Structures are given as C-alpha cells and as structure tokens.
Amino acid sequence: MTEVTAQRAEPILEVAGLRRTYGDAPGMLARMLRQPARRVRAVDGVDLRLRPGETMALVGESGCGKSTVARCVAGLESPSAGTVRYSGETMERIARRALPARKDVQMVFQDPYSSLNPRWPVGRSIAEPMQVLGLETGRDAAQARVAELLSQVGLAPEDAEKFPHQFSGGQRQRVAIARALSTRPKVIICDEPTSALDVSVQAQILNMMKDLQEEYGLAYLFITHDLGVVDHMADRVAIMYLGRIVEIGSREAIFARPRHPYTRMLMDAVPRLDEVTAGAPPLGELPDPANPPSGCAFRTRCPWAIAACAETVPPLEEVDGRRAACLRSGEVA
Ligand SMILES: Nc1ncnc2c1ncn2[C@@H]1O[C@H](COP(=O)(O)OP(=O)(O)OP(=O)(O)O)[C@@H](O)[C@H]1O
C-alpha cells in the first residue's frame, strides 16, 4: 500500500495538528533566579492516521516527543492544540462525557508497575478498567473475565491471586497486557513495552502481541527506539525528530530506501541505537529541545544540509511511495 492509499483508508485513530508545549510559565526556582521560562515544544504539529488492525511504529531518539504523543493520544494528557479522534469522536468529548469510545483505547507502558498496583492481587488490577467503565460489574462475571484474560496472555487463572512482585518481568508485562485487553479495546498505545526485558522474553511478548492483534483486530501505536522491534512489528513507520514527523510510510518503503537523512542515519546506527537512546552520540548531540535550530531542526547534524535548510521547515511531501520532510529527499536514497 502506498502512503497515499494509506491516507485514504478509514482510520480508527486520527491525530491532527497535535501540539504539546511544556514550561509556558517559569517554575518557582526559575522565578527566584529571574530565569526565563524553558519552553519546549515537545510535540509540534503531528498528524497520524491508524487503521483498524494496523501497527504504526513511532520511532526516534530519546526526547523527540514519542511519549508525549502517546500520552496525548491515550487521553492521559491534554494537547496544547490539535485533535485526537477515535472513530471520528474527539478525545475531549470521550474523556468529558465518558462515551463508550473510552473503552476503545488502552495503554501499555514500559514499566508494568505504572498500571499495576503493587498492593493489589493482579486480578483486581486487571478487572479495574472494565469495572470503572461499567462493563463487567458483577463479581462472578468479572472473575470469569479475568481468568479468560489471563489465559489469553499465557498465564493461569490462579495467577489472579498473586501480587505483581511474584511474577517475572515478562509475566508482569503479560498481566499489564491482560489489563489493557480487559475493555476489549480497538487500539492499544504501547510505549516501549518490551525494552526493559531480555531479548528472548522480548520476542515472546512481541509474538504474543502479534497473535492477539490478529485474533482481536487490534491496532497498535507502537512507540520504540528499537528498529529490530519496528521491523518485527510494524506495518507503517513514523520517524520523529524534535517534536515533528520527518518521514512516514510503509515499513517496506522506509527500510528499503529511507528518504530522510535522519531515518538514514538511524538505520546506519542500528547496532548502536540503544547507545543513541542512552545518550552516546554516534549521530552527534541532539540540539537543545528548548532552542531548536531554525528551519529544518535536523540540519545541524545533517550531512546533506544546505543554506536553504535554515530558512523554512520543510513540509512532509510525497516521495517514492512515502512522505518525507526534506528539501533533498530526492537525493537521499
Ligand atoms: N512534564 C514535562 N515537563 C517539561 N518537559 C517535558 C515534560 N515531559 C516531556 N518533556 C520534554 O519534552 C520533550 C519530549 O519528551 P518525551 O518524553 O515525549 O520524549 P521521548 O521521545 O518519549 O523520550 P524518551 O524515549 O526518553 O521517553 C523532551 O525535551 C522532554 O524533556
């Protein structure tokens, strides 16, 4: 499917012009030291469309705004501007009026403890979202559903009585996935769900997530810095740099012929991408997000940069079956 066709298909999730700025007002310490506010445009005009049953990977170095997109899309944070729609319904309306669409989106975090209460038996945490939304209120029905969910993620019904610390890291992530599945969502936002796990456990969880996707027609917005994971999971890929998407298209197109210099450099750095994320800079230092370069924010690290790159922010334009935001995208491949 070309990027043009993908854009035409009916989306389950549609993000338009999403912006999230932090630090509009200076904090107390900054005020005492008479420092100006440190204003960061963490997300600066992101558009995304996710179709039912599809996996879109959102990729980029630490600090480029991936988690902020995830939190805004999951309704955990309000955007400064732009809209998030599920099946055409805005997230604002969904959150305010507890519309049924609220059950359609769930989130899985890197750290399962973010969604599991350490003092609750996991069965209670798994049942919580469906009970909050009034889906399975009777005790027996809720228990039966928890047992069903545990077996869907490869655990035993008796595991409902255990506490989070009694599981291994991989099992704990299975529990977090069972909790996310409890409301029968259509979309799951996954923020680095396997990056804290050993490689072999990682593969098991990813394969299970693929099976669950197939069985329930789930769409995943999959946030990761790991291109191996992207290759394994994604139908489409969006590459983010300092708050903006710089390239978006099918996994095949992007892996075969990256058209943005940043995508290309990420791919060249593949074996060391964990170092990129850990801050070691095979690509050079990321500029200060509070003070990004004019024009194309990547130009200060870009071997293809020319004077014109400092003038304007290049728009995402169709090139070679995907969209890329680079004045020289035609020459990059
Ligand atoms: N609550 C906050 N207050 C102030 N700045 C924030 C806040 N959350 C994020 N930021 C800033 O917004 C930018 C994007 O952060 P974000 O966590 O979304 O990036 P990321 O790509 O998900 O990185 P990571 O992989 O490290 O989580 C960063 O410059 C970060 O410092």
TrEMBL record:
Pfam families: ABC_tran (PF00005), oligo_HPY (PF08352). It is a peripheral membrane protein. InterPro entries: AAA+_ATPase, ABC_transp_ATP-bind, ABC_transporter-like_ATP-bd, ABC_transporter-like_CS, Oligopep_ABC_C, P-loop_NTPase. SUPFAM superfamilies: P-loop containing nucleoside triphosphate hydrolases. CDD domains: ABC_NikE_OppD_transporters. It is found in: Cell inner membrane. Residues 13-267 form the ABC transporter domain. Its main location: membrane. Signal peptide: none annotated. GO terms for molecular function: ATP binding. Keywords: ATP-binding, Nucleotide-binding, Transport. Belongs to the ABC transporter superfamily. This is ATP-binding cassette domain-containing protein.
